[in-house]
Recover the amino acids of this structure.
């Protein structure tokens, strides 16, 4: 299958590597062109624009930071939509707003192309291993065409409904892990303050009801006070805002998520926005007792 990958960051680059390893004919494009070079050495073709990348592709996989980036890559000057052939499918692994996905699907349909929103969970580790969980939205025929690509980058693919459904599912995911990151950080701060052997405690916790992906994969960051990527605080804050916007649209109040959003705002303001989300553990270590008890609105 001819697959183009646009966006070669922490997640997109390993996705492209897995597609090459699976035997697909891969073309790559990235705004910072130097990121294409390691993949070219592995056999990928390079394209100078998204339109050039999309020309002749069966599937175009995008992995960018935010909704405006996606719409620009697809529909901006020399955007992918200019190069797409009828019957091609865009698979978007970014985390963007459901409304942006629905708009993109509508505009792609006008040029005869399909759209699958396929945001992922599993972190940079899952991207490197090809074991991501994928939340898919789109028409059945488009998901079917995209499935060989999705199977190369993920180990669990769940089709949840029409375009936008994958992004809504990712919003649910980001809400759930937001609280987990925050409370694992608070628990470790409590254990340290109490003088417990934290490494031994984490090992024990991992065998009980407190077990989680965050505890297993990010507690080491929290104990050491070092927060390499991972997944940036700033990007998770963006994702959480998408989820809170959807909650507001649906008439829901989510005070825990709003509290974590404020904590991430604080981390970004203090210069920690490029650290892994586990940097939420910075805050309880330095917050006076009683501060931050309220989960009321901003």
């Amino acid at each position: 299958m001819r697959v183009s990958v646009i966006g070669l960051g922490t997640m997109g680059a390993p996705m492209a590597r897995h597609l090459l390893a699976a035997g697909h004919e891969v073309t790559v494009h990235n705004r910072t062109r130097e990121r294409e070079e390691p993949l070219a050495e592995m056999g990928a073709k390079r394209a100078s624009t998204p339109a050039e990348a999309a020309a002749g592709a069966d599937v175009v996989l995008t992995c960018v930071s935010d909704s405006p980036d996606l719409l620009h890559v697809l529909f901006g000057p020399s955007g992918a939509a200019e190069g797409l052939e009828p019957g091609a499918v865009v698979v978007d692994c970014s985390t963007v707003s459901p409304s942006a996905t629905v708009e993109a699907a509508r505009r792609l349909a006008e040029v005869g192309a399909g759209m699958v929103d396929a945001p992922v969970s599993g972190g940079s580790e899952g991207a490197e291993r090809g074991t991501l969980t994928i939340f898919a939205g789109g028409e059945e025929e488009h998901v079917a065409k995209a499935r060989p690509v999705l199977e190369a980058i993920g180990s669990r693919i769940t089709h949840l409904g029409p375009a936008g459904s994958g992004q809504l599912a990712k919003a649910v995911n980001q809400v759930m892990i937001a609280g987990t990151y925050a409370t694992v950080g608070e628990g470790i701060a409590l254990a340290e303050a109490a003088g417990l052997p934290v490494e031994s405690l984490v090992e024990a916790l991992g065998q009980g009801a407190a077990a989680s992906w965050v505890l297993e994969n990010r507690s080491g960051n929290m104990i050491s006070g070092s927060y390499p990527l991972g997944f940036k605080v700033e990007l998770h804050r963006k994702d959480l805002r998408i989820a809170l916007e959807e909650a507001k649209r649906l008439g829901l109040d989510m005070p825990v998520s709003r509290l974590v959003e404020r904590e991430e705002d604080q981390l970004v303001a203090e210069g920690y926005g490029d650290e892994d989300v586990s940097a939420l553990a910075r805050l309880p270590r330095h917050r006076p007792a009683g501060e931050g008890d309220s989960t009321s609105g901003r």
In short: The longest strand covers residues 154-159. The longest helix spans residues 165-193. The radius of gyration is 20 Å.
